[in-house]
Amino acid sequence: MKQQPAPRGVYIHIPFCTNKCHYCDFNSFVLKGQPVDEYLEALEREMAATSIMLPPQVIDTVFVGGGTPTVLTPEQMTRFLAAVKRHFPLADNVEFSMEANPGTTDLEKLQAMREGGVNRLSFGVQSFDNVLLERIGRIHDVDDVYNSIANARTAGFDNLSIDLMFGLPGQTVDALQDSVARALALDLPHYSLYGLKVEENTLFHRLYERNELILPEEEEELEMYLYIMEQLKNAGRRQYEISNFAKPGFESRHNTIYWRNEPYYGLGAGAHGYAGRHRHVNIKGVQPYIEATRNGLPRLDSSDVSESEAMEDFMMVGLRLLEGVSNTDFGRQFPGHSIEEQFGDIIMRLQDDGLLEAEGDRYRLTEQGVLLGNEVFGAFVTVLED
Length: 386
Known about the structure:
CATH architecture of the largest domain: Alpha-Beta Barrel
Number of strands: 17
Strand order of the largest sheet: 9-10-8-7-6-5-4-1-11
Radius of gyration: 21 Å
Shape: globular
């Protein structure tokens, strides 16, 4: 087996939130009463142990997610960012992203983030409709969005992204159109658009089970997605992935690591990592995670990834990118193999169904395939034998 390279991306999880949104199934905990400083100490222990176990080379991307990382105080933020730099050698042109919640980013905190090396912010806006924001459990309002973006620009951030959601309870096409217009008026370089998924262990799932969650019809949700794609394209934001749109040069470099099935470090409570054809997930609870770091790596589970499983993953995540997957990249990860050799029958069927198209040594989604992406990705699940 070819020796796998050391990861060039780092994901770090800050699991604290001001509150739990009604749709959220991420590993997150309400901030009040949490041992935040102890957690940051534990993160430093995991960083140190990780850098010994799998020594890092130059790191191209860092992504801090959650939770809401921006609930850290300016002092905690400064300490945390300094620890990242101590344990991971960052490239001169590193993309250093942090998720942020509008209303948790005053100018002092943003300046601490900028001085600590963060150069890209992703704001969880979700909607420009205050009624909808309250309905889905967000604590910010539209004014907080504008203030946060203004503060970020004042602090020196120009690589900014916002998340918007569609298919929300009670959301109409008109309401979605208004949110898209307001989002584009901010003239940001990057936008992420997500349809609501009702996940287990959420308030929305409990309501859904009781038939108390009224969602838009499937046709209406499709109309929303098509409208989003059209408006963002007209505004000069290229759709480079199923849910992501950017000005040229502002595509998320860190997320592209995932979509290309490349290795990355994963640190923090509940974080996932992938390196050397080996996946792990960390212990999820805050206190159990803290205690586990005193005795080594805080693993909840870990497993080897077979070559056939890695090939399937390559296709499933790679086809999310609108540039698709290439035999060149496939051969780089799996020397001596080609896409046609492993998946020829599936590729032909998806082409016959009008969901995939070929160009040179590359396969990518058609316009119809973009709308039926899950059908395409599912075609590659557990189809190869080890």
